[in-house]
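## retry 2 of 3
previous attempt timed out at serialization; input unchanged, resubmitting
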Amino acid sequence: MITVVERHSREASERILDAVLRRGAPLVIVPSPPGAGKTTLVETVVAAAVHFGLRVIVIAPRAEQTYDFMRRLAGGYAGIRIEALLATERELPVDLPAAGVRQCRRVRDLASNGPGVVVCTVDKLATAVPDVPAGFFDVLICDEAWQVTAKDLLLCSGVAPQALLVGDPGQLPPLVRSDTGRLESRAHRVHWPAPKELLRRHPTATVIPLPATRRLPQDSVDLVQPAFYPDLHFVSAATAGSRELRFGASGLGTPIDRVLDKLEAGDTIVGALLPQRRHPGGEVDEELAELAAKIAHRALERRPTWVNERAMSAEDIGCVDPHRDSGTATRRALSNRGISDEMMVSTPEIWQGLQRPLMIARHPILPGRRLTGFDLEPGRWCVMLSRHQIGCVIVGRDGVGDALERHQHDCAARPAEAEDAEWNGWRAHDRLWATLEAQDRLVRL
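## retry succeeded, writing output
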């Protein structure tokens, strides 16, 4: 039986296919919540376009993203001609040529006729644009489009008469290695995420949002969506009872066991807070690293099971930390407890697009020091809180709410008409933390 959520998701996919393949809309933008099946949608559009005799080019920000897409496409749609356009210094992973993916270095090496798909990074296509003959491609698809700047996408836009941009508007913005303050009030905000700038310039463009996340449980959606996606309403596609956590061993009443018991009871985002103390500076808090490791170790000791799925191991738990140095401290603490390489510990930038049943997230705010734009960046905190399929434990220090309340925001530090990401982040942090407090989801150790 098809649920209402599944029916709405199918209807959204059908509208996207109709806009691209039947109506020939020049620009279709698809904002998506985390874990909504963006890549599956792109695969479906590519397969349908190739079936109708079109030539498609798919681009993504990072090479690893293109490799993953080609693996999925080759595995799910046998018979589609797939060509990878690579930089000179890159080689395809060995499994892709074995799956039938053809490797090319230059545009003139690509097959010159017939339907098929070419896959490459945004940077590679930008350098190859002068060599692309007019009419060579019918459709340009950009996966993870909110990670691409308007400047980079516009360099590629002339290769096809149609463009489909798919991505998550709540993720981290594109990395720009220069001061963008002077660009904020310009007519063309070339450093903005491409879909956002295109919609600002062309507000009548076709926008078809995806309505559901397949990753997050509804309890998490109720926390994450109002804080980070105020303009994108979505629900969870997870069916009732499909995201339950059970432990084979009961807790002993310790604070860490109380945190895990809340996850088992159905609170999918909870916090474990150490007492507030004056921070000595730097990004590493060894006590927080120890706490994250203790929570992971205790969860494994209690023999976790994803109900109706499988018994869980260290590979089913991930740790996300806003800083590399403090992530290293967490790895060291895990190793001291016999948990090492099997548990992924990394930054939000690496975790984008990935997921685990259980996540441990170190709060980016350390009370006792002045809050920065990095601490309050909404995309970073959004990524950290949207990687889990069952539950997420926030580790931090008490006083986050007080730190947010004391924060003095300088609205004059930005040019007129500039978007204030720091203020948006403060509001997201404040709303989420107040909800966690009100719902008794925070355990003070």
